[in-house]
């Protein structure tokens, strides 16, 4: 999804950590330099004078490119039931969540089950992945329709 080399600031030493959500599909990486303590500071016009000739680690702002879009679905596991895309209230009263992330080709990117007393049996995990694939197709259709509408305008 993301070329990790694009997140590199200093090879083998420093890089950006990115958490991406739908509103942030276009991410701008700011120009930064290292201060005297070895910490990263954002280079801006205001603090450029204080940098005293420090060379920026990355040369100016740039966009982070995504090779494919992530599609995530959270499911609640309760006994023999699966509740897909729960509300915040539903999440707060249940103990076991499972979040599945697929890329736009349907490949599994991430599977997260943060604790909880209920075991995530293989069949339940497979069902959640299948639900995520179904939801991904629905969202792709909605996105494609929105994009074609924007191109028509």
Topology, pairings included?
Elements: E1 8-10, E2 14-15, E3 27-29, E4 32-34, E5 40-42, E6 62-64, E7 71-78, E8 81-84, H1 88-93, E9 97-102, E10 108-112, H2 122-152
Antiparallel strand pairs: 1-2, 3-6, 4-5, 7-8, 7-9, 9-10
Query: Major β-sheet, in short?
Result: 4 strands, antiparallel
The chain-level mean pLDDT equals: 76
Looking across the biggest beta sheet, what order are the strands in? 8-7-9-10
Strand content: 25-35%
List low-confidence stretches: none
Structural class given helices, strands, pairing? alpha+beta
Tell me the number of strands: 10
Number of helices: 2
Q: Name the assembly state.
A: single chain
- The amount of helix comes to 10-25%
**Spatial shape:** extended
Cα-atom radius of gyration: 21 Å
**SSE pattern:** EEEEEEEEHEEH
Task: Describe it.
The protein is of the alpha+beta class. Helices cover 24% and strands 26% of the residues. It has a four-stranded antiparallel sheet, covered by helices on one side. Strands 1-2 form a two-stranded antiparallel ribbon. Strand 9 (97-102) and strand 10 (108-112) form a beta hairpin. The longest helix has 31 residues, at 122-152. It is extended, with a radius of gyration of 21 Å. The two termini are 29 Å apart. The mean pLDDT is 76.
Please describe the structure with a list of short key phrases separated by commas or semicolons.
153 residues, 4-stranded antiparallel beta sheet
């Amino acid at each position: 999804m993301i070329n990790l080399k694009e997140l590199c600031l200093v090879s083998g030493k420093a890089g950006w950590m990115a958490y991406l959500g739908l509103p942030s599909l276009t991410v701008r990486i700011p120009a930064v330099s290292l201060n005297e303590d070895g910490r990263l500071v954002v280079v801006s016009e205001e603090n450029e004078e204080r940098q005293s000739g420090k060379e920026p680690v990355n040369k100016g702002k740039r966009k982070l490119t995504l090779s494919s879009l992530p599609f995530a679905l959270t499911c609640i596991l309760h006994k023999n039931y699966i509740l897909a895309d729960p509300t915040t209230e539903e999440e707060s009263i249940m103990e076991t969540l499972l979040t599945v992330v697929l890329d736009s080709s349907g490949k599994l990117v991430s599977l997260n089950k943060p604790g909880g007393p209920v075991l995530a049996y293989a069949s339940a995990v497979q069902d959640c992945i299948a639900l995520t694939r179904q939801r991904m197709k629905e969202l792709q259709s909605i996105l494609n329709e929105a994009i074609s509408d924007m191109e028509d305008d």
